[in-house]
Design brief:
Elements: E1 13-17, E2 28-30, E3 36-43, E4 50-55, H1 56-68
Antiparallel strand pairs: 1-4, 2-3, 3-4
Length: 81
């Protein structure tokens, strides 16, 4: 299910080898050319050296929409895990 517990979402993600800490979520994964390749969203709960990032293709439309938006939106409550 999604984070609100009301549907299934399929995503393309990168598995990262490195320390992902609380507060890294939303941070960019940057290529050696300086391009954003993805956005960090989670750390593994079973391996402290593994994290996860959504691919740029997954987030680029939402990022572009966010730069033009001026209305407040609800973040809703996340489903209990």
């Amino acid at each position: 299910p999604n984070i609100y517990g009301d549907g299934t979402v399929l995503r393309s993600v990168y598995s990262l080898r490195g320390l992902i800490r609380p507060g890294n979520s939303g941070g960019p994964i940057v290529t050696t050319q300086g391009d954003v390749a993805g956005v960090i969203f989670a750390a593994s709960v079973t391996d402290s050296d593994t994290g996860y990032a959504l691919t740029w293709e997954q987030v680029s439309d939402a990022a572009a929409d966010g730069t033009a938006s001026s209305q407040q939106v609800s973040t809703q409550d996340c489903a209990a895990g």
